[in-house]
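hey m, so remember when u said the tokens were messed up on ur end? i reran from scratch. heres the input so u can diff it against urs
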Amino acid sequence: MHVAVYSTRRYDRDFLERANAAGRHTLSFLEARLEPATVAAAGAADAVCAFVNDRLDAEVLRALHARGVRLVVLRSAGFNHVDLAMAAELGIAVGRVPAYSPHAVAEHTVALVLALNRKIHKAYARVREGNFALDGLLGFDLVGRTVGVVGTGQIGTAFARIMAGFGCTLLAHAPVQEPACLALGARYVPLPDLLAHSDIVSLHCPLTPDTQHLIDSHALARMKRGAMLVNTSRGGVIDTRAVIRALKTGHLGSLGLDVYEEEGDLFFRDLSGTVLRDDVFARLLTFPNVVITGHQGFFTEEALAAIAHTTIDNLDAFEAEGRPRHAVSLERVV
């Protein structure tokens, strides 16, 4: 198949070419993000390969269909950016990567927790300037602290396992109780109870209409004063403006983000030579108790290899059977 691969960087090309070593598919790599203005760059492709910030709304899907595209393969587990109803109407199949390396995201979440708690970001900058004073760097022992895990799929469970190793008490909230989390000693509670009793709240739930701004001003008010909030799931799960207000009052003790609800115009690009136009994001950067990474939680060798392998497998399956191996639709998710 001829595949137009959007939003690609050097590492995407490297791993996808290795996974496609047999040369069964023709991969055309495009740095541009998929949006209405870049649909024509797909040329005569049979399929497009998209990432988390590519647009796959009704307008883009119609334009792709008009060019003969029959398949969309996502290099991600999430598919909230795809208009599945329109894809079904047009007869465009959609495939995803349901799991790549839950450990990659879970371990990055722990890195954010440790950096915020022990002020690693501040200590690094100080030492480089010859300042070895410890004032303002006071942290707390993780052992005995209560960690709330919102969403206990593979990533949330992997994170819970690591925090259990630190000796933390685990609270969990999810639609279905995960036996592996229960085995760790986690106790499933309603979200208000989790927020009220957790010293650290970590978000690992998908972005759906039910979880859009799950952490809003009301949820933040229920949290312990001085608690830590970490989000490595999807940016839209938190109301960023409400979080800023909670940081300004001091009610929210610290914030770690690897995702941002308006990240499409920021992440995965080098904007160091420009002025940030997103005033909300710029305001977040002014807080000394906020650590933000640019959606790099997935970024490990193991995860990239798994993403590439599954992407090629979806293409192989569609070519052989007429549907991707890991199909997603309004009726079914594989």
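this time it looks ok to me. The chain is about 35% helix and 15% strand. if urs says something different then somethings off w ur setup not the seq
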